[in-house]
């Protein structure tokens, strides 16, 4: 089991990676393995993914070494880690979104999901404020779908969106 936990009592942007075996014995403790830029004191979910039995992928955003948003691949049996930048929204999709939402900056894009299929040109774009936009490159349009978290595209090009309402907030634990 792998956990990302706050590196200090202030709930700052750093997170330590702790890996436990089936019996709860600590296999690895890597201080400040992940860095997600946010205000101190704000409790933030740090998602992680196992690549294989020996490698865990942790997010970085605003990393101290000058890296932009991406992931670190940390091997349990090695000291270092390899860095991989997140893919960028295609330029054509960004131009369309910027025309429809002129106050949005590229750095506001938290995540995007491309619809699969023969170059569909459809993207669900999640912004930092939790607004979700659907961008259609082929039609040259962008539509605000609402607030929440985009889950996936269906085969018939419909977007599953976890809607966010104040009485039923959406929390996610993975990217």
Automatic annotation (TrEMBL):
It comes from the Bacteria. This is Copper amine oxidase-like N-terminal domain-containing protein.
């Amino acid at each position: 089991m792998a956990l990302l936990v706050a590196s200090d009592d202030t709930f700052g942007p750093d997170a330590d990676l702790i890996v436990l075996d089936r019996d709860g014995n600590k296999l690895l403790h890597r201080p400040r393995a992940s860095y997600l830029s946010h205000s101190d004191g704000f409790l933030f979910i740090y998602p992680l993914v196992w690549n294989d039995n020996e490698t865990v992928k942790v997010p970085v955003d605003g990393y101290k070494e000058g890296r932009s948003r991406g992931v670190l691949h940390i091997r349990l049996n090695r000291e270092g880690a390899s860095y991989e930048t997140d893919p960028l929204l295609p330029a054509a999709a960004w131009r369309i979104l910027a025309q429809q939402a002129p106050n949005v900056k590229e750095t506001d894009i938290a995540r995007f999901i491309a619809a699969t299929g023969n170059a569909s040109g459809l993207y669900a774009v999640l912004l930092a404020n939790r607004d979700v936009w659907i961008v259609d490159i082929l039609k040259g349009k962008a539509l605000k779908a609402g607030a929440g978290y985009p889950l996936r595209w269906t085969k018939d090009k419909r977007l599953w969106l976890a809607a966010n309402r104040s009485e039923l907030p959406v929390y996610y634990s993975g990217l």
